[in-house]
Amino acid sequence: MNPSTLETVVVGVLLFASTNIDDVFLLMAFFADPRLDRRAVVAGQFLGIGGIVAASVAAAAFAVAVPPEWVALLGLAPLSLGLHRLWSAWRSPPAPTDDSERVPTAAGSLVAQACSVAGVTAANGGDNLGVYVPVFAEQFQVVPTFTAIFAIMTGLWCVAGNLLVNHRLVAATMRRLAGRLLPWVLIVLGLCILAGARGLVMPVKP
């Protein structure tokens, strides 16, 4: 590996890790929820990260600066999902927490779950566009290398989230609290992201 390639790999790893560290905790919450199929969580994470990378590449290719206020509107996705989960929990009894009692997921439900996870992942990483776009624009020729690195890192993130939530010291607490915790995590996450859109209704005075 020549120095320039090594430098690209290091930059790619640091770029992904620094902008997606919070995804590990989000993945833990997803994996701990017995209502979510693990395949849907993994697929959704890849779809969400892939969507962010694709949008960043498109913006870099056309040298388009993405206004952070509009990116922040992605916070509507986790907010609406969190509110929906609260409503569902209020109207129906808690789902079983034992993996052995998990009902097999139908194909349609699996796709819906993957899309939901992807939406939350994309919203949580929406601000990554502000980091990725200028880097991709400056080093557009190595975007394929960055994309491969991000794919590998996404897989490692899924493994880390799954291992942490299945750790005997963490699993019991996470599995017990997941059903109650995840809706609030999504709501808070959505509100925090949406806070960046306040410039659309309250323009900053020069």
Overview of this structure, please?
With 206 residues, the protein is mainly alpha-helical. The protein has one domain. The chain is built from 8 helices and no strands. It has helices at 3-32, 38-61, 68-71, 76-91, 107-124, 129-138, 143-165, 168-194. α4 (76-91) crosses α5 (107-124) and α4 packs across α8. The longest helix has 30 residues, at 3-32. The radius of gyration is 18 Å and the shape is globular. The N and C termini lie far apart (49 Å). The model is unreliable at 96-107 (pLDDT under 50).
- Give the proportion of residues in helices: over 70%
Oligomer: single chain
How large a portion of the residues is in β-strands, by DSSP E?
A: under 5%
User: Care to count the β-strands?
Assistant: 0
What's the end-to-end separation, in Å?
Answer: 49 Å
Based on CA atoms alone, the radius of gyration comes out at: 18 Å
How would a textbook summarize the main sheet? none
Mean pLDDT: 78
Summed up, the helix count is 8
What is the number of domains?
A: 1
Instruction: Give the overall shape.
Output: globular
